[in-house]
Write a structure and sequence with these properties.
two-stranded parallel ribbon, rod-shaped, two-stranded antiparallel sheet, mainly alpha
């Protein structure tokens, strides 16, 4: 017996009962008209197909979750690589400034600028442009220890220094006011953290 025949038979039996609500009978009438759509469908095959659809949807959801996690890890890896290059540039800059005999009090001032000036090669090597540190020593001589034997930074003979003693200022909460930044960079003003 087909679905349509079963529904029709059930509708007839319900219709014979005088107390049955007409909405229920109307619902059966709609089901009977749509029963042709489902005629010939194997119910077990339909159940199996629906279960497989649920399994495929679960697998698709898991795949989407894995794809999202992969994308997050890729972003984290890129961020980590950027941080690594930044750290390597700072290390290389610090090593170069130390080799150029930078005075310790100017390290915080020059380190970020020098690190940003370094080049990263195709193979990841970090290098400074040719003569970079010598150029800094020439441009800002007061920031570096001198090359003379005494290591004072002066070039005149003993007792005949022509350099003025740099003015000392104390930074409060990391802020220095009332001083020209060029004077700090040139070394005519020294800043200490207070």
């Amino acid at each position: 017996m087909s679905l349509k025949e079963t529904l029709t038979q059930l509708r007839s039996q319900l219709g014979a009962i005088p107390t049955v609500d007409t909405e229920i009978l109307s619902s059966f009438d709609q089901a009977i008209t749509q029963a042709d759509l489902y005629d010939g469908i194997d119910p077990e095959a339909a159940r199996t197909a629906l279960q497989q659809l649920d399994q495929y949807q679960t697998q698709a959801d898991q795949l989407q979750t894995l794809t999202d996690e992969r994308d997050q890890l890729t972003t984290q890896l890129a961020d980590t690589k950027t941080q690594l290059v930044t750290s390597q540039k700072q290390f290389t800059a610090l090593r170069g400034l130390t080799s150029a005999q930078l005075r310790p009090e100017y390290e915080d001032l020059l380190l970020p600028q020098v690190a940003n000036s370094l080049d990263v090669g195709e193979n990841g090597d970090i290098t400074a442009p040719e003569g970079f540190y010598d150029g800094l020593k020439t441009k800002y001589p007061a920031m570096f220890f001198g090359d003379d034997a005494a290591g004072t930074g002066g070039s005149a003979g003993e007792g005949s220094s022509t350099e003025e003693t740099p003015k000392q200022l104390t930074a409060k909460d990391g802020i220095v006011s009332g001083v020209d930044p060029d004077d700090v960079i040139s070394g005519s003003v020294r800043v200490s953290l207070g």
